[in-house]
User: Fold this.
Amino acid sequence: MTSVVIVQYGYPEQTRRAVESLMLHSKGAVDVVVVDNGSPECGGNQPGGEGERYRIIENIKNLGFGAANNIGARATHGDLILFLNSDTITHGEILPGIESYFAANPRCGAAGLRLLNSDGTLQNSTGKVPTVLSILNTRRREYVYSPPDPVRRDWVSGAALVVRRTVFEQVGGFDERYFMYFEDVDLCARIRREGYEVHYIAGVSVEHLGGGSQAGGKSVVVEKEFRKSQVLCYFRYSSAVDRVLLRVYLFMRFLPQLVLGGRDRREVASYVLPIILRPADERRH
Assistant:
C-alpha cells in the first residue's frame, strides 16, 4: 500500500486540485494526509473531504518543508510513502505502477517520478551528487535528460518522491535543518549511504506546475533559504576541492551585489557571504 503526503503553504485550491486529480485516477481508498504548514491566509479554507477519503493536519506555524513531511509521514500507514507537491496534477493511475516497481526492485529505497511541465515537456528532476560543476551542467539539456544510467540516480526531486517506510525511518526521515530546498538531495544521499539505491521511474509521471507557493518568483526570504540549504548540502556531501570552489563561486557572485546591487540584492548578499565564510564543520553538525 502507498500512502500519500502533501504539504501546503497557502493556495488551498491548488492543493484541492492535486488531491482530487489523484483520487480521480485511483481505484479504491487511498491513504492521503494533507499537512497545512501554518498558512496564515487559509483559515478554515482547506481541501474538502476530510474524514471521508483523507485527513488534514494543521501546523500552527511554518515548520519547513522537510519537517512538515515528517509529520505527515508519521500519520500514514502504507509500506511506501509518496511525498507529492501540492502543485502537481495526476493524469492517470500512478499508485499501482509505483507499487509494482518497488516490488520488482528490492534494493530501491527511494524513487522519483517523471515530472512534466504543463505543455508535456520534461522537467529537470534528478541529478548527481552536488558539485560546483553541476550548477552549470544542470542547465544543459543533454545532461539533464540523458544521464548515463537509465534508472539509478544520486538524487531525485522531492516534488514526487516515493520512499520505503522502513528505509525512511531507518535514516531518520528528512533532515529538518533544511527549511526548504535540498532536503530531497540530502535524504537521497543518506539512503544511498545505507546501501539502498535511488531510482528514477520514467514510466510513472505527474504534471508539476512548479513554484506554486512562490508566485512572482523567488522572494528575498526564499533565496536566503535556498542559499543556506545549498551551502549546508554541498558542504556535507562534496569534496574538499568542491567546498573551496563553492566558496569562490558564491563569493564572486555575491560580493559585487553587496556593493552595487539594489536593496534586495544587497540584503541577500549580506546574508549569504557570512554563511560561506564560516568554517565548514559548523554546518556539518
